[in-house]
DNA sequence: GCAAAAGTGTTAATCGTACACCCATGC
DNA sequence: GCATGGGTGTACGATTAACACTTTTGC
């Protein structure tokens, strides 16, 4: 664990921050369980008119941890498959807002970097089969003409989040919510493998076009962290000095203070993304 | 008009081709008017169940002619606005197929370069107002709860077509179908200005990433034509020789024969996109 | 002082750009 | 032959990659 030492009293400040974060996350998690919308299956099966029919949103939430690019997945209750966090679009909300709502429910984060990247709308997407399986688990008596059993067109979003700030929270259909390395995904429901794959391709493309990588790191980060992020996602390697020069030449980073890790070497500088 | 001379008898061959093309387009145009689906308003208002509700497709069809990038637009009957070709997604077809169907109906072309680029799904897209106006023109007695009056989420596609091969054909809601220069668009209905703008941005981005420009030209083209295409879309200018080197270095063009225009200068080579 | 890791500086190679020149064509 | 426009070759500058070196830190 890295500790940021501003002064000798710094450690205490940081530890305090971690504790506050933990408790606020806890409070948030319980708060969500009381939310009036789609909190359980009864809502899920009765609120058809609340949503735009046959349209869903799937989110590929990327995080970076332990030198690995990760994706947040939900384990469907009593089924041996995982799925991307997703949901439906309310009649009164925009599609981006819907994605944000879903993201906040699963991660507890607001103000997330979010982009749509593709619509998945093939005539024979394998949605019906899975929804049917899910229903067998939860509501074997449900009718066959239920709205969720129709064909669905899904808008794919990808999100870049600060791994350390996320408190994964499962929804009412799933029993757990965990990070998986993109290179080692479990068996995914629906066409979520394809969706994840496309999201990753888009992320790679955007990375050198738009410099969005910072969103995967904490507010301040070392150059090495940034470099290893780029190297992991793009599956290449750069020279330390050249990478640094390239990043700094873009004039979007500002150097903050030094990071003392306790290691017997020169302390690296921390950088922050210039917001303006 | 450029004439391709393979031999002294070439002119006749070419002229013949032009004539055949003209007649086949004419035949196709009349054929479409007999198509069973959505051929008129009666169909339009009665076939609700055929389509996925609240979901539409809008196509930004790009063409290149006279050194200008053009977009194909429809003039709505009795209204002073133009609109992008669009339509709805049938329950039995994929979204890409829907876009292709719409494209074929308006241009007569199959096998078109087509990509989705963004979904427009803000909660308050100005669709209702325009559909209401359209209905006042066509069906003033129609009920207010008609399916087309709901909120719609629209998937934006952009298409790159060979201008010379297109025979613009209006649909039953419009009185004409014409090309407009992207720099001088008329008043557009709905949020179609925004959609067109985003399509153009995506096209510019894709142009140097994926080399899709060829789809806007005929099968064979001169290097100068390709260059002027790039210059027009990207709004820059390149050096003749450097542009050529860059293009040829990518190893995706093959040189075919020379093009004799009758001008008193060296005949340029024609190039073709290597399909494999 | 030394090892480890970060930071800086300097050279070599590559790429893009600008310029000059050569070639084919019709009058 | 000459004007016109297309094609090719080369030199220059900028950007990028590779290498060497210096600085900071804890033991």
Automatic annotation (TrEMBL), chains A, B:
Source organism of the structure: Runella slithyformis (strain ATCC 29530 / DSM 19594 / LMG 11500 / NCIMB 11436 / LSU 4)
Domain spans labelled Nudix hydrolase: 52-204
Transmembrane domains' residue ranges: none
Superkingdom field: Bacteria
A molecular function GO annotation: hydrolase activity
Family annotation (PROSITE patterns): NUDIX
Gene3D superfamilies: Nucleoside Triphosphate Pyrophosphohydrolase (3.90.79.10), Winged helix-like DNA-binding domain superfamily/Winged helix DNA-binding domain (1.10.10.10)
PANTHER family: ADP-RIBOSE PYROPHOSPHATASE, SLR1690 PROTEIN
CDD domains: NUDIX_NadM_like (cd18873)
Keyword Hydrolase part of the UniProt annotation: yes
Pfam family, one: NUDIX
Keywords: Hydrolase
Lineage: Bacteria, Pseudomonadati, Bacteroidota, Cytophagia, Cytophagales
Name of the featured protein: NUDIX hydrolase
InterPro entries per record: NUDIX_hydrolase-like_dom_sf, NUDIX_hydrolase_dom, WH-like_DNA-bd_sf, WH_DNA-bd_sf, WHD_NrtR
